[in-house]
Amino acid sequence: MLIVKRFAMILLLAGGVSAVAAQEATWIWYPGDFDIWLSNKMQNRRTERGSFFPPFWKLDNHYILINFHKTFNLTAPEDVSVYVEGEYNVKLDTKLLPGKPSQVTLPAGKHVLDMKVFCQDRVPAIYLKGKTLVTDTSWKVTFEDKEWIDATGKVSDQSGTVWLPAASGGFNNPLQPPSAFRLQVTPASAVRKEKLSQGEVLDFGKETFGFIKIHGLKGTGGLSLYYGESREEAMATESCETLDRLELQNAPARDSVLPLSKAFRYVQVNAAAGVSYDSVSMLYEYSTVQEKGNFRCSDEEINRIYDVAKYTLHLNTREFFIDGIKRDRWVWSGDAYQSYLMNYYLYFDEPTVKRTLLAQRGKDPVSSHINTIMDYTFYWFMGIYDYYRYTGDSSFIKQCYPRMQSLMEYCLGRRNKDGLMEGLSGDWIFIDWADGLSKQGEVSFEQLLFCRSLETMALCAEIANDAKHKDTYNQLAADVKTKLFNWYWNTEKQALVHSRINGQPTDHVTRYANMFAIFFNYLNNDQKQGVKKQVLLNNNVPAITTPYMRFYELEALCALGEQNYVLQEMKNYWGGMLKLGATSFWEEYNPAKKGAEHYAMYGRPFGKSLCHAWGASPIYLLGKYYLGVTPVTAGYDTYTITPVLGGLQWMEGDVPVPGGNIHVYCSAKEIKVQSATGTGKLLLNSKTKPVVSNGTAVLKSGQQYEVTIEKNKAYRITYTAL
Amino acid sequence: MLIVKRFAMILLLAGGVSAVAAQEATWIWYPGDFDIWLSNKMQNRRTERGSFFPPFWKLDNHYILINFHKTFNLTAPEDVSVYVEGEYNVKLDTKLLPGKPSQVTLPAGKHVLDMKVFCQDRVPAIYLKGKTLVTDTSWKVTFEDKEWIDATGKVSDQSGTVWLPAASGGFNNPLQPPSAFRLQVTPASAVRKEKLSQGEVLDFGKETFGFIKIHGLKGTGGLSLYYGESREEAMATESCETLDRLELQNAPARDSVLPLSKAFRYVQVNAAAGVSYDSVSMLYEYSTVQEKGNFRCSDEEINRIYDVAKYTLHLNTREFFIDGIKRDRWVWSGDAYQSYLMNYYLYFDEPTVKRTLLAQRGKDPVSSHINTIMDYTFYWFMGIYDYYRYTGDSSFIKQCYPRMQSLMEYCLGRRNKDGLMEGLSGDWIFIDWADGLSKQGEVSFEQLLFCRSLETMALCAEIANDAKHKDTYNQLAADVKTKLFNWYWNTEKQALVHSRINGQPTDHVTRYANMFAIFFNYLNNDQKQGVKKQVLLNNNVPAITTPYMRFYELEALCALGEQNYVLQEMKNYWGGMLKLGATSFWEEYNPAKKGAEHYAMYGRPFGKSLCHAWGASPIYLLGKYYLGVTPVTAGYDTYTITPVLGGLQWMEGDVPVPGGNIHVYCSAKEIKVQSATGTGKLLLNSKTKPVVSNGTAVLKSGQQYEVTIEKNKAYRITYTAL
């Protein structure tokens, strides 16, 4: 059924196609529109017990009428094949060509080609392929060309058209337009079958995702599928989160693929008396992102944690970086923000980051925070900041900048009389899932993220050559930061307090703002040590129970040099899930709970997601704070490598960077490094001056040495661990 | 072919339908969305010689995900049938019902029903029908419900959801959802056939609109149709504006209806040797708006002008009020504005006015003037003003007010340093089609319309209970008006000059601003007389050659009491077109031209539209300035009737008003009046005191008398004309 549908998609395209190599030509569209359209499809695939369950925020739309524009200069006339998604016309030098040509002959010399495409249900897109003229991102696009004519037929010569470079996304086959995009699938089988008094339960051996396929299905009557991330869930026909029901009427035997993908490890299959089938398998559906990073070390439990984290992230890396595969499958900004960071240490896949950022942002006007959550708006800005830091892709920043500005305008318009961000009607202050966490008044955590977002605006204003607003944003950021420390820093508690209510700081301390303040580098050294002792390592401050915020808590501790402590925490926390049989990491984990209690959330016995992207943070922590690779200037033009074993005997891994990897091996005696890009500084502590195979170690302070790492050279450093 | 398509539309609907009377239930959707969606379909139907020809402004989109919400209170449980356009769910008291129910049983008592509908290609819409619970405009809708849940499953209790009343549009049949909307068609035949050496020319006897139907079409090869508003155009295969080409391949004989409607009087049919057919007819396509107004008088030429004007307006009254049926078929704001005014004197059809206003306005953000034309933005505001004046429908004003505000914000943001509207890049200053008309600098005409638009904003701010902005808009309007008279009024010329350039008024006088200033009542009596003599009746001021601006020119003269002169102008100008064989009125008419010269425009031999809505203005002039019926307060709560024969011996007619008509008969001796609404003042001049059958005449001044007209009473007044 699914397969047939995909095939049909391809056949639906306009005919008359010849074999085309199409190496350079690619489908193009208006920037951001495919991302929004695809996210609408994706986010409306959620079901809850068979019922449609769409998002609760505004879904934006692609522009339905687009002008594609290209000035070309040919040395000889050229035949060009034309493929289009939508109703269209072709203009050569502003003159309409007859009808809807599937092939046009372009004259030699300098000319202008324009195509207008209208498409309501898909994104207007074109693919042109001639000997030299092809569609690519050198084409310009607009959603309003404003090209009126006067009574004599003369085209306006003072149009205010805003042209943008066209977007593309690797759709290089004229027969596979953007609307036909599907993730890959591959067949997979259950590893175990368990007969029930009625029906059977299939166990696919681990958390997985895809389309159930029922082979040789026939007969008359109902067939039900109950999906479970746990066996308990698959058995709970009245409370499992997802299910499918088919109704057959004299169906002849055939293989049926369920139309909607699901997350599961177990599936209970329950057929009515009149219905039979041969067997049940699945089509595993996955993104083809490439694993570029890796990590291995002397601790096998950490290695298993790393592998399950990788699998968890891969399952949640789909058309977009989503939150979890069982339930929402939505593009949540706070969740995706963590996936971006993990991505930089595993796939370094820029397209999925850009697609997710564009989908979250949508279009103007802004009528709510991203996903309705104030913090999630700020994570969106921070995602842009990090994207630039890791990739150095300034063209994407320039493309996003107008939408960044209007979103920031929305935020600035919602400040209270003290210039702080306080929840207004319709604003969800999320922070974390934590019992009794106060969202009242002006929460320090939100001001901190607001400040970082303003700093991001200033950075991007500079990239977008908007010097005037750069200054404005810098001043606004400085103002918020001043207020943060004047109003929230409690010297006695050595912490930022949780909130102000009615203009007065509370004396309640939580971890959130304090841990972010550390890796944002907003604290001086005394403050850092105070926070470490009085907040992070203080059991009287409420503990964090989600991997989501454990991500930042452990990052803060790593930033303070507590890798040994963090390694043990990883083993306890992620290792704890593994000991309970987890094959992917969870939305929430509280070691105090027992048995099926672990599966409950949102007031539902199986409400919790057992495969949540934010559970995969060891990928990031191990890459950034153990292998110790981090960019200093955008796109790894310069970077540092600060290996920290944290109690391991040895570790080895790759961190992907633009154009290749940075490879690091580290034991207590020896470090090996090779990098494919930029200029790095290897920072290490040694009792004696390290010996460098291919360079020299320079003493920086006390026992810290620095080795300059040049591109594509192998370094071997022997040293004496402290 | 067309018929088949329509039928298929209906069959595509969700099945399981029982016979339903459905008197009260109606399809509902988010306000404005159907109008925008339908206008996208309509405006993308334009072709030029067979090529797709879409608009050059931004096309907006409907919201693709909508929540429909209803609190109900049933005395007994009730079965409700559910019909939906799109993917959907149903929630009862915030709990999801299983799957996609086509029927739900609602419990007795007070409960809440929610439905979420996602639909990309059509407008999300629902139709529910129970014994008492039905979909209607008492339902609420939103495009973002912001109803998040916390970790315990509790729904947010501080949502900032903006709920609006749902919109509906007379779709009361569950099997005919909004997306299936089509205008009516009826078969029609040519009145004459002319054999050509190759092919034939059919003459349908007058301008018409619809789908050509070819009966018994069969064979192999091409068949071409060349459409002509004139015989010359249908014969000009190389330059006619619209055509169709079919290609047949061993087609068995069948009746084929062309998929796109066209405007024509003549059609040349040209079949290849291998193609044959039995005959050619058409399906005339039309709006079912009802004629409520009428006019008859002692001058048969005026009667013919009135009838052809009616036919012209009817052809251009379609899904929307469009500009002309042959070429653009777009929703142009300046053109539609005149149709609104004519509509109030012929159909009084509110839905087509509202649909057109909503379609033109589209959605935020505003990125250009309406249709890219500055004056057309202002006509949009004026259209709102008049809609309220004629209908008194304040709920529509309230619905539109936020979109009015953002459009006015756009205008205010584009004022120059002197606070005036000057064309910026991308702004088309249209005014009129007139050779050599200057659009440079700050054109007085635009300031005048800007001022009226600000007055409209103040009026609507009051209706929308926005007292603060009412004052702001009034101040802004007063400021523009002051500048208009301080800077543009030339005492010597007794006129507003055409423009200022570089801050200096020119001494060039055109008719535009001056004639609008008269019926906007911006001039004092001396200024009015000055303008009349020095501008309107001055042959040295460039003449107007479009019925578009003749509309306002003649209105201004009527407002000055020049009905005798205007009657002669009507006979000359519109009568002139009739003498040339016009069966509908034209986009432009210059009596100085000869033969086929009349058909040329935009540099093309048949570029001119011979059926243009703005050609139908006699409907308005005769109703408003001869029968003399005009509302004083909104919705004809109070009104005046000032009959002016203007040289006619007698006239009689009806002007539609809310709830009925106002009937007026007038000769030099006798006036008869009956009104279905409000309280009127009949104003008449008489040498002697008029005798009133059913009331009394009160002397107001000199020889002017006033008779109060009460609802549903017949009055007969005898008087002595001056």
Automatic annotation (TrEMBL), chains A, B:
Domain Alpha-rhamnosidase-like N-terminal: 66-269
Keyword Hydrolase among UniProt keywords: no
Start and end residues of each Alpha-L-rhamnosidase six-hairpin glycosidase domain: 291-624
Keywords attached to this entry: Signal
Keyword ATP-binding: no
Pfam families: Bac_rhamnosid-like_N (PF21209), Bac_rhamnosid6H (PF17389)
GO BP, sorted A to Z: carbohydrate metabolic process
Domain of life of the source: Bacteria
The protein, known as: Alpha-L-rhamnosidase
Organism annotation: Filimonas lacunae
